[in-house]
Design brief:
Elements: H1 2-13, H2 25-62
């Protein structure tokens, strides 16, 4: 597996791909997508919490 990764980076990025920390386009895109996914999950969690709080308050008011 390590040799395959090394070979892939060499083919895509030439010698610069062998430097420490060099990333292919797909690796960079994957990192960005993972970050975006975490941000979106956080937004969804905040919205869900707000909905639960509103529902809870409405139940208390209606009782």
């Amino acid at each position: 597996m390590i040799i395959y990764n090394w070979k892939e980076k060499l083919e895509k990025l030439d010698k610069s791909g062998l430097q420490s920390g060099a990333k292919t386009d797909s690796e960079r895109e994957l990192k960005l997508l993972r970050h975006e996914n975490e941000v979106l999950k956080s937004i969804v969690a905040e919205k869900e919490l707000a909905i639960q709080i509103k529902d809870s308050l409405l139940k208390k008011v209606n009782q």
